[in-house]
Protein 1
Amino acid sequence: MDDVTDNTTADVVDDHRSDQATPLFVLAAIVLIAMLIGGNFSALKFALDHTTPFLLASMRTVIGGTVLVALAVGRGERFPTDRALLARIFVVGFSITTVSSGLLVFGVSKVPAGFASLISSTMPLFTAVISLLLLRARVSRLGALGLVIGFVGTAVLASPALDGDAKLVGAVSLICSALAWAFGTVYMKWKDFSQVTPIMLVGVQLWMSAAMLVPFALIVEGTADTDWSLGLFVPLTYAAIPANAVTFSLIATVVRRATPTQAASTAYMIPLFGVFFGWVIRGEVLGIVELVGGLLIVAGVSVVVTAGNRRRPTASGSKGGR
């Protein structure tokens, strides 16, 4: 991917910019990603009734990676062999599908789902900071306003869960998970992944993650506490394929066509769908707090996405770059 320096100064600037997506495409992708991940919190809770956190995380990577690599190969794609490319894929996999996913499952096992959603939604804030450091990007007043609105909405939505019972270790795990997820998202924009499609990219990184997570889980947790039943395999299948393989492939696609901050704004929508699926699956009632928080989240994401696609003309009215 050629480095492209865009001096037109978008509201959220990315000096390494791919083809720009329309706000409608980005919003649609964000909603779909957030919907799939939002259901993941309920799926993980069900699966954790039958197994341990890191073993669950490792099984997700094995299943998700196998499905994606098989799909990519079936489409005629070749498994990447370039060492430099594989090294870059490893960095993404270690960040997002190893550290972030492992700590996410572990954190969800320790704290209420609403609180987990709130902590996970800090990911766009980390993304903005890392983009500033690695991509020399900046967030304008409009972009920053969208981030603040989204975070406030998430805080309002998850506030009923903040009852003081959340364990510190779970909160710290989820913060580290959000940080690792943010770094991996920015890294995909920073480095060249044009030689591989998003499907193959995520499939390979999931396999790399499995190579690390499986032995770690077997050594630390073992399989004695795992119940190999439908109660495990049904939520595991959802957590591995729609909520893992599909969503990370979509995220990789969005990152190529939008800014990292836009892609990261997905995290603001996750608690909204988490509450929705809680209502559908568990019969939880949506109250005024949930409705207000949900509306603020949608507004914040809309502002962030729109900000990333607005440009101010330069004096020369042209772009610089190579």
Protein 2
Amino acid sequence: MKLKIAINMKVRRKLYYNISPKMRLFVRKVFFLPIDIWETIKGKRHKYEPLKGDIYIGSGDFIAQGVDQLKLLKKYIKLDPEDAVLDVGSGIGRTAVALTEYLTSKGKYEGFDVVEKGVKWCNKKITKDFPNFNFLYVPLNNDLYNKSKGESQNFKFPYEDASFNKVFLFSVFTHMPVEEIGHYLCEIKRILKPGGLCLSTFFIYTTRNEEMIANNNNFSFPVKKDEYRLMSNTVKSANIALKNDLLDKLIAKAKLEKLKTIEGFWKLDILKHPDNNFQDIIILKS
């Protein structure tokens, strides 16, 4: 039974990757339309929770997941209510919503994303009530989310040097080519204040568990490349797993210091725990 479910998930994922980014957003909108109508009628939705059909990344309880991410930020990078925070890949506000109840008016939140609909929703719903929260749309190409002429490997974050205490990226480096990951790490180094901290998530493997992550029935990376693996050869940004040695090289080149690794339970040999995440967590210091 479990094998059948895993195969069905792989088939659905393959079909999903074979349609355009714009069509993926439309399919999700149609799929969740009945439950979105029902929750709207019943008034069950949190004030700062988007329609399920508008949430284009992740699944599960939107509000609860944001709260869990805030817990990780407080635990691993000592997030302070008055910090200047940058959310790279702010999406449709999953983490930002939780932060509205934590950051004070002396704190500052900036977020940017490549999907315009998410940025528009955040500015309309969140910035309206919390003026120290700002969201920016950047038209960068990503074959999973957005077709554009902008190139991430040449993109300069639109912020001054050393302007943030903390930076975080949830499920961003898992959807970027290697050269773009390296460039973003350099930009993180530039905009972080000396001693500033960054929490980022990855899919990381070693020689020891490469075969396991390549053949996992439910969540696998079958496409082998040079020191990294892909979930799909059709959509390069669908999901990428980096060999640990390659990630260490990219971090060193950016002149960042790796403080800690918390392995995620996406791997079959890692148990789910309140202190970890589905993806692997890396803590970096400027």
